[in-house]
Amino acid sequence: MSAAENTSEIEGRDADPSGLGGPGGPGGSGGQADQADQGALGKPGQSQDPEERAAAELALRVFHGDERWGWEFVQPPEPPAHRDAQNPPVYTEPSDAQVRAALERTMTGRKTSGFGCLTLIAGVAAFITMNAEAAIIVVVLIIALIIATSPKSRLRAAQRRLKSAREHAQRDYHARWQAWQYSLEAHRAEYLRHNETLDTWYPISLTSGPSRIDVFGGTGNGWASLLATLGGPVLGGGRPVVVLDLTQQAVALELAGLAARRGVTVAHVPMPGALLGMDLREEFTSEELAETFAETLASMRPPGADIDLRTIDVDVIHTVTDLLEGPVTLARLAAGLRVLLRVYDVDPSSPGPLSPAEIESITRAIDLVGQGERVQNELRYVRAQMELLAKAEAADTSDTPASAWWKPASLTIVTTEDRVHRRKDLTDRFVFFRLLHTLRGRSVAAGSGTLVVAGADHLGREALETMARQARTAGVRLVFLLEHLREAAVQVAGGSDSATIFMRMGNGEEAKAAAQFIGQEHKFLVNQITRQIGETLTEGRASSYSYQRGVSDTKGVNYGSSSSWSDLGHSSSSTSGSSRSTTTSLSRSWQDSTNTSTAHSTTHGENLSRVYEFAVEPTQLQALPPTGLLLVEAGPHGRRVVFGDCNPGITLLPRLSTRPRPSLP
């Protein structure tokens, strides 16, 4: 599908991520459901709140089917052209040769023909020989005959015949045109009825099976819709989902509500309050805890900072953790660091977090840590950060090891919220590296879980790449939800064994960077349209006249004599004569001819030019609806770019396919 068609379709829908008020409504008929799940909707005739019924139907459909990241809208194909679409009926104009011939006779000025003159003479003779009454009748008939055979009369008669022939031709053409139109409309209507039976929404799946998916851009509501659309089938398939929400926008709340309706176990772990009562020895050794805290503090420093500070952090925290005999909590770690700084106050009236033996053993280790200014400054910094965590508001329940979050068919939502920005930032980083420690320890069964990290922009490129590498090694699929596509994020995007999803990108520079990542392609654009219309009119007239006269004169003279003799005597005679004849011949001829021709010509032309432009324009990314997305993946058939929508309410629409759209080879 083109990008403009799909975007206009998405914009026409309700962006409500819950889908309860979206198109289709609770009465939508899309999707298939297990019959065992129909009981959740209540029996026919049973009284049930419409909103409750709609929510139950939505949860049923979201959790059904294979994994999907959204839905792709596919416009049914246009009906093919009818075989006679390019052969419309042709109107044939009746010939006007008779009209033109009569018109030419009229234009010559000859009002009467020779036949008319002869008729007039015959009428005069009849008038002389007949009586008056008969003569009048003959004269009237002669006049009528003359009028009927006059050029003007013949012209009018020819024009009437032409008009009648033209009306008949137009009626015949109109009937053939209506029959042709009806055939085309019936053909189109048949295919449109067939298109109404075709699916228009297809699930978007990842054909390459990547271990990491990077989502850039979007809003809190858009991410909530994406997690609901993705998490439903995953949880429905019995696999765990862990969401680390660093956004403070409750992006997993919609998924949690749907999961609760489907009877899926949902656990909420609020940070840092849940950490306060936890014994960190249950999850870390002394060395692992020191390394995790050192990584947390190192991520807060600018890139290229002195790496010796990380060594000091590990040494200090490792020393205190080893010397603590009881549980290792944040408060006791902070107290141990205060002992190393010699600022720990002992109040005999109220026991502190550390026992006297622990205070004594840590005090003896002061010289082992070092007394240099650099060490003391870093020790103060580590102690301040640890106390910052220890002073957080305690949660109702204590945390459990992170490995316990990966229970089959369960949803665990880890949130970090605090009014103090420094403590919120420190908590984000510690929980992130805590999960990284869990992945390093292979505490999660390979291929059984999905980890979603929402709002990890501020953690830095190195931390994100380390998490991606460890998740791939541990067999856990990782999903990053990043609000911005800045320099560090651009370097992360498109890593090995990954797919990329772009949602609404409000910033113009980020939208341009996304368009450059998607790539460019060759296009053919029309840069010139020409239309030429020509008309040629040719008219000619020829006239010829010939006159010939001949005279022949013939003249002859005859002479003769004779004589005879007899007994009676001699006799003689002579004769003479002449003859003459004259012949005169006269011939005249004339000829008039007129010819007229008209020719029309129309020429259409288009000039195409090949350009190399963005496959998706930055403005298209900026205009995406909150739940709109654009998937970029290198699949089995090459790189593909797909527009879609992750609104879970789409599952309530009719004409919904259960299988992805077939890929073109």
Give the distance, in angstroms, between the N- and C-terminal Cα atoms: 16 Å
The total of helices stands at 19
Number of strands: 13
Helix content: 25-40%
Q: What's the mean pLDDT score?
A: 81
- Biggest sheet, in brief? 9 strands, mixed
Uncertain runs are 1-47, 109-113
Quote the beta fraction.
15-25%
Strand order in space, largest sheet: 5-6-4-7-8-3-9-12-13
Gross geometry:
rod-shaped
**Secondary structure category:** alpha/beta
What integer value in Å does the Rg equal? Answer: 53 Å
Commentary on this structure:
This protein is α/β, with parallel strands linked by helices and 665 residues long. It has a domain at 283-391. 40% of the residues lie in helices and 23% in strands. The chain has helices at 3-11, 50-62, 97-108, 114-129, 132-148, 151-195, 220-236, 253-261, 286-298, 308-323, 330-340, 356-364, 366-369, 373-390, 421-440, 461-474, 487-492, 508-518, 618-622, and strands at residues 71-73, 201-203, 212-216, 241-245, 265-271, 410-416, 450-454, 477-482, 498-502, 520-566, 569-614, 628-635, 638-645. A nine-stranded mixed β-sheet has the order 5-6-4-7-8-3-9-12-13, with helices on both faces. A two-stranded antiparallel sheet has the order 1-2. Strand 7 (450-454), helix 16 (461-474) and strand 8 form a beta-alpha-beta unit. The chain is rod-shaped, with a radius of gyration of 53 Å.
